[in-house]
Amino acid sequence: MTKTIETKAVPELGISPEKLCFIIVKAHEFDAKDSVTDPDDASNAADDAMVSVLEDHADDPVFAELVGFINALSEDEQIDLVALSWLGRGDGTIDDWNELRAEAARAHNKRTAAYLLGMPTLGDYLEDGLSEFGRSCEEFEIGRL
User: Fold this and answer.
1) Is the Cα torsion angle 70, 75, 76, 81 positive or negative in sign?
2) pTM greater than 0.85 (yes/no)
3) 97 close to 105: Cβ distance less than 8 angstroms
4) In this structure, what is the dihedral angle of CA atoms 2, 94, 29, 74, given to the nearest 10 degrees?
5) Which among 89, 115, 114, 84 has a CA at the least distance from the CA of 100?
6) Which side of the chain, N or C, has fewer Cβ within a 10 Å radius?
7) What is the DSSP letter of 48?
8) What are 111-122's pLDDT values in tens digits?
9) What is d(CA 75, CA 109) in angstroms, rounded to the nearest whole number?
10) What is the phi/psi pair of residue 25, to 5°?
11) Which helix or strand (DSSP H or E) is residue 97 part of?
12) Rounded to 5°, angle at Cα 36 from 33 and 41
């Protein structure tokens, strides 16, 4: 008697690996920079939706490049990007992809770039999420860093 092993199909991403890896590399560059501090600010950055952190980097060319790139993505690509960041953050597993993506679609608005760049370890989240799909940016990063 032969046992059949069920394998679940890995969902498809609606954003190309090249675009995703570009965002991951740039997010790592952005994450590595020291944030400008405001000595008069008594608030926790998380309490003000990380707005002060984003304002501190408004003239940062990497920040501007990421904002422009993310804003130029299609709505479906932006939704996948948000869902992938949640997946990498541990908000679910690959088996929850459809639910994560549906929630990202419900929450979608014109502030996707600001939302994502407010995540202190966006590059790591996206990289971890991508690894859940059995992919990595290793080949993409060779010669680009």
Assistant:
1) positive
2) no
3) no
4) 120
5) 84
6) N
7) G
8) 999 999 999 899
9) 9
10) -60, -45
11) helix 97-107
12) 145
